[in-house]
Amino acid sequence: MSVSRVINGDTGVREKTRAVINDAIRELNYTPNLMARSLVTLKEIRIGVIYSNPSAAFMGDFLAGVFEEASNRAAQLILLKGQDGGAPSAEAVRRLLASGIGGVILAPPLGEAEGLRRMLHDASVPVALVGAVASDAISVGIDNHRAARDMTRHLIAMGHRRIGFVVGNPDQQASIARLDGFRSAVAEAGDVAATIVQGDFSYASGLIAGEALLGAADRPTAVFASNDDMAAAVVSVAHRRHLDIPADLTVTGFDDSTAAVTLWPPLTTIRQPVQQLAAEALQLLIREMRTGTALPAGERLLVLGHDLIERESTAPPPG
Predict the structure, then answer these.
(1) Where are the beta strands (DSSP E) in 226-286?
(2) pTM (2 d.p.)
(3) Distance CA 210, CA 284 (A)
(4) Partners of residue 90 on adjacent β-strands
(5) Domains, the chain, with CATH or none
(6) 11: which of 22, 43, 233, 317 is 20 to 30 A away, CA to CA?
(7) Distance between CA 52 and CA 70 in Å, rounded?
């Protein structure tokens, strides 16, 4: 599905997808560049964007970054959504390839879908991954291990010695790295009791994890969730249990998505520059498409920085 179809008022676009793209357009205050439209006919750049992330907040930021960079470079985007949170069907990918695209960006978590990557590789299509690393593709992301370690150190420095951690999808590189970063900071401190509960990055899994952590007799004084959606769920469980945040419980997340600032209280979280990650992936992909050969290995991996954003969901432990 082409972003241009939304701009041009095509009615054959799903309302949910239209809403996400229109949010990105409003955020960017975008108006069509007629000169860019005329130039694209000279050497059209067509890029497929394949996604399946269920978080509307994340995808809104991701599409805003891709969309702005595409408009700057007179590139046409064609979107393909995966099935049930996973990769799209092989037939859908074949149709995308047949549309004349010159490259593909895989949004998280599809960068780790080996079958999909293999299919694109076999078709000799350049691929850029966001949030995952692979030797056969451009890879753009942050240092998830370091970011999670930074947040855990922050909680320990506040005085917390009973800390719960909600893990994301165990099959994703980012999830494993964040768990390792948490464990690294806990081991470094030497006097922290850590409780680790499995989630899958969804709000629903955060509710289950929150009940497990906050229902314990010796519950944590702080909970660090691997993304903001699960952190929001933990906050909901805390409210149901009449726990004040942050007086009774500190909660932190990861991503700095819209959820982080719409919660009450606003969430302390790790900010990863999602729009910039998407834009950088597109830039590198276009470079590779134009040269017709793979970029040097040292230029195919880009790691951007992160920030720890402190808001009102954190405080020293009670007592």
Answers:
(1) 250-255, 268-271
(2) 0.82
(3) 40
(4) none
(5) 3-142+273-304 (3.40.50.2300), 144-272 (3.40.50.2300)
(6) 43
(7) 20
pLDDT string in tens for the chain (319-residue length): 455 555 455 555 667 676 776 676 666 655 554 444 434 344 578 999 998 865 667 788 888 999 999 988 889 999 998 876 678 888 999 999 998 899 999 998 888 888 899 999 999 999 999 999 998 899 999 999 999 999 999 999 999 999 999 999 998 999 999 999 999 999 999 999 999 999 999 999 999 999 999 999 999 999 999 999 999 999 999 999 999 999 999 999 999 988 899 999 999 999 999 999 999 999 999 999 988 888 888 899 999 999 999 999 999 999 8
Q: Shortest CA distance to 72 belongs to which of 275, 271, 295?
A: 275
Residue 63 token pair: 């599409």
What is the longest distance spanned by two Cα atoms in the chain? 69
**39 residue type, one letter:** L
**Cα distance between residue 105 and residue 243, in whole Å:** 42
Q: How many CA atoms does the CB half-sphere of 227 hold within 13 Å?
A: 25
In whole angstroms, what is the distance from residue 288 CA to residue 36 CA?
Answer: 21
Residue 182: how many CA atoms within 13 Å on its side-chain side? 27
